[in-house]
Design brief:
Blueprint lengths: L3 H13 L21 E5 L2 E4 L4 E4 L14 H11 L10 H13 L5 E5 L2 H16 L3 E5 L12 E2 L9 E2 L6 H4 L2 E4 L4 H10 L4 E6 L15 H12 L2 E5 L11 H6 L5 E4 L10 E5 L1 H4 L18 H16 L3 H22 L5 E5 L2 E5 L8 H5 L3 H13 L2 E2 L8 E2 L6 H15 L3
Parallel strand pairs: 3-15, 5-8, 5-9, 9-10, 10-11
Antiparallel strand pairs: 1-2, 2-3, 4-12, 6-7, 11-12, 13-14, 14-16
Helix pairs in contact: 2-10, 3-10, 6-7, 11-14, 13-14
The protein binds pyridoxal-5'-phosphate.
Length: 428
């Protein structure tokens, strides 16, 4: 058994941590088996507790876009740590990273830093409600906006209706303010606006979905949402926690030339430390405390270590004019290799890709929303996942996840990955 040490560590972890993990998807529930414990990571590689080296396609679920332990980021954190790690008072570096982020992202004047993507999305919705003085929000089935109460709602049997909570602990009161639509269905959103006149504060959406595989907005979909929001006086919130600073400097707003009212960030913006942020035009952000009445706060928000990591990361991305193109080319190369291999072995599949995000679905039809993503064959995915793991390739332990490429991946790594996929595909 190659994962003896990881399995032992998992047994110990489960005694003191629920399910042995601090975030559920890490537990391998949907693929079976015990999770791999990581010892360290460098560049494109993870080194686990059993002494194996794995090529990493998760990048800590997105943040490590330049690879692990990237030197400028690590150096910035070490230098800051020696000068104190938290003060609960303003520091100059917060303004520095704010200015840089604002210069990279279209349509934002001010930004507030928090500690996670969850906090960013939760606060963005509160701000939209405070700004519009309305209570309801529209979200899309399969989109993930963190674990705060209003977002843990999914569509019941595909019906577009009042949401019901899909986690115990979320009240029906909260659930009823979250309305659901299918991703890419503009008609359902129109119907929701008509059924709830002057009640909808905001639409929140992953403008490219990255939490049910990688799903692209259909032509005109985001623009359609923009128009509906303008027509009905609602705020459009782009949750760019995954896509921000990954698909382009300015995220999907830049890439697809659509403007949101409020944008949320996380993952890449923290360079691997716990950071989230939300941003908007000054007119909207001025509603936030202490400038305005909408309350939002955090003891560790904007703390120097997190800001140093985030700033070093954003500087690298801002200064390197090639990075997003380089990542997109690597991802396209990988796509071609996977496609050729799965074709050769007569596997039924669909691949979605944009920039450095790619997902392989063992599904016969186009994957355009949660339903079509759920039509994928999970048994095949499990075999695929474990087969690749044996070959030293680490992809997300769930069929509902995208792969996130990092720029430390070399073409040799990609070739090794494609060869591993070819070997595993034979057994599917
Ligand atoms: C990861 C993610 C979140 C939640 O961020 P956390 O930092 O895990 O709280 C929110 N939205 C999207 C799109 C994400 O990918």
């Amino acid at each position: 058994m190659i994962y003896k040490r990881s399995s032992e560590l998992f047994v110990e972890a489960q005694k003191v941590i629920p399910g042995g993990v601090n975030s559920p998807v890490r537990a391998f529930k949907s693929v079976g088996g015990d999770p791999i414990f990581v010892k360290e990571a460098k560049g494109a590689y993870l080194y686990d507790e059993d002494g194996r080296k794995l090529i990493d396609y998760i990048a800590s679920w997105g943040p490590m876009i330049l690879g692990h332990a990237h030197k400028p980021v690590v150096d910035a954190v070490i230098a800051k740590a020696q000068k104190g790690t938290s003060f609960g008072m303003p520091t100059a570096i917060e303004t520095e990273i704010a200015k840089l982020a604002i210069s990279m992202v279209p349509g934002i004047d001010k930004i507030r830093f928090v500690n996670s993507g969850t906090e960013a999305c939760m606060s963005a919705v509160r701000l939209a409600r405070g700004f519009t003085k309305r209570e309801k929000i529209i979200k899309f089935a399969g989109c993930y906006h963190g674990h705060s109460d209003s977002f843990l709602i999914q569509a019941g049997s595909g019906a577009v209706t009042f949401g019901s909570p899909n986690s115990p602990g979320v009240t029906r009161g909260t659930a009823k303010d979250t309305l659901l639509a299918d991703y890419n269905s503009l008609d359902q959103v129109k119907d929701l606006f008509e059924a709830n006149p002057n009640e909808i504060a905001a639409i929140i959406i992953e403008p490219v979905a990255g939490n049910m595989g990688c799903i692209l907005p259909a032509e005109g979909f985001l623009q359609g949402l923009r128009e509906l929001c303008d027509q009905h006086g609602a705020q459009l919130i782009f949750d760019e926690v995954m896509t921000g600073f990954r698909l382009a400097k300015g995220g999907v707003q830049e890439l697809m030339d659509v403007r949101a009212d409020i944008v949320t960030f996380g993952k890449v913006i923290g360079g691997g430390l716990p950071v989230g942020a939300f941003a908007a035009r000054a007119e909207i952000m001025s509603h936030l405390a202490p400038e305005g009445p909408v309350y939002q706060a955090g003891t560790l928000s904007g703390n120097p270590l997190a800001m140093a990591a985030g700033l070093a990361m954003l500087q690298e991305l801002n200064n390197d004019g090639e990075i997003f193109e380089s990542l997109a080319q690597k991802t396209a190369y990988l796509h071609k290799g996977i496609k050729e291999s799965l074709d050769r072995h007569n596997i039924t599949y669909t691949i979605n890709r944009i920039g450095s995000m790619i997902s392989v679905h063992f599904a016969p039809d186009a994957v355009v929303d949660f339903k079509t993503a759920a039509a994928g064959d999970n048994e095949t995915f499990k075999k695929f996942f474990h087969g690749l793991l044996e070959e030293g390739i680490y992809i997300a332990p769930s069929a509902y996840e995208s792969w996130f490429l990092n720029n430390a991946l070399s073409y040799e790594d990609l070739d090794a990955t494609i060869a591993a996929i070819d070997k595993v595909a034979k057994t599917l």
